[in-house]
Amino acid sequence: MSELEANINKLSGYLTRFQQTGLLNQIGGKAVSALSGDTFDNHSPVDGKLICKIAKSGAADIDAAAKAASDAFPQWRDTDNKERKKILHRIADGIVARAEEIAFAECYDTGQALRFMSKAALRGAENFRYFADLAPGARDGKQLPSPTLMNVTTRVPIGPAGIITPWNTPFMLSTWKIAPALAAGCTIVHKPAEFSPVTARILVEIAEEAGLPPGVWNLVNGFGEDAGKALTEHRDIKAISFVGESKTGSMIMRQGADTLKRVHFELGGKNPVIVFEDADLERALDAAIFMIYSLNGERCTSSSRLLIQSSIADKFLTRMVKRINQIRVGHPLDPTTEIGPLIHKVHFDKVCSYFDIARQDGATIAAGGEAVEGEGYYVRPTLFTGAANNMRIAQEEIFGPVLTAITFDTEEEALAIANDVEYGLSGYVWTNDLTRAMRITEKLEAGMIWVNSENVRHLPSPFGGVKASGIGRDGGDWSFEFYMEQKHIAFATGKHKIPQLGKDPSE
Ligand code: NAD
Description:
Bound molecules: nicotinamide-adenine-dinucleotide
Shape: globular
Structural class: alpha/beta
Helix content: 40-55%
């Protein structure tokens, strides 16, 4: 039996229970169907087969989950931080123990290749460990003495928070959002993406088995326009942490306006990788390929625009085309696969539509540019060359294994092209000229910039974007700033003069 066959057999063992019961919500510590009894079908992008039925929830389910999160909040808020730390570490242990189940389910549900998903499961555990260790200090504040007062600050959890996640690498992103919320003392209602909800269910089960009290973490499945919308409008939900498309972020801002929601948005990107002629071109080539073709290109920080200096463009692109044509497209559970199928027919159609758009705009398809025949939503890794930055392929987030290459002559031109998009999530600069790197990073409009490196996540560093790519930052204390309120308390240190209104001077 091949490794792929063995993995497929194991996968079916992991999924059997979901096929029998359907994928349920978790509200107040109980696995429950949607109150309406409605379900929707979740199909795999790998072969189109039904994975399982999913609870199709609406406003009533969100209301029940928000009530459970509100009821559980005082106790969780007041739980000793050391106890919180222990529980979060136990969740990490539970993730590690079930890492294979998580990785396999994620591959089949999302189409992502196992070589990346096995690491994503373990990174999920790391997220919990990192915030577990920060939990004891989450409330820490400052002393700001003035002549008459001892001013102190402390932080308190904001309350029940809503977490809405997208379909790309849903497990890892969910842990990234949920771990700091719990470490801060918030209770949560999580609404995972309708296209890839399976691992969110496994995650909440792990959390409760690890001793997380009922109601602290509630899971509600469903579509954005009903369950997601109801969550953003619910009065008891104090904050919404959202990862998804920029236009959905705008909708959520409107939906949350009446209840004055605090929002944290991680949105789309059209991130440049800028390669100068003086760079280490071997490493730049590896990184540029990795940052667009790993994770099926369904990655917010993917470097989807290659800005390449004209003097080295031909040679660099020729080598790139050779490598792209060698990328292995295949079943996600085959350990040798580098690109799996795209998440869904809707997304597959969108990505494929850009092949024609590129031709119409006058760009050249130097590699790929077609779907793979047969079942599943597979496309060939694609490179567009001869592009200009005003083309749609250079401006719009395609969110697939599709790279648009644009040439430039000068540093100023590179910078102007890099910044001439509505997004500003990440940027990658390849040069061995230190002063140029400093000039470029100063002016590049992006929340995160890597110089001579691919994206390497460092949990204490701030993660997030500018412009249409987001509001707010994740990571380290930035996550606590979102999930907590600052409180200022002032203690009089003596009997300072208090202004006396309405007092008779003779009294
Ligand atoms: P999406 O915006 O379509 O959906 C994301 C989530 O929002 C889903 O759970 C969906 O059900 C929900 N939703 C949809 N409409 C809603 C509404 N009106 N109210 C409340 N919730 C609603 O995004 P997607 O297609 O699932 O994910 C891909 C996008 O996510 C890409 O644009 C990508 O760049 C972005 N992304 C950004 C980051 C980042 O850190 N910046 C990370 C990953 C993905």
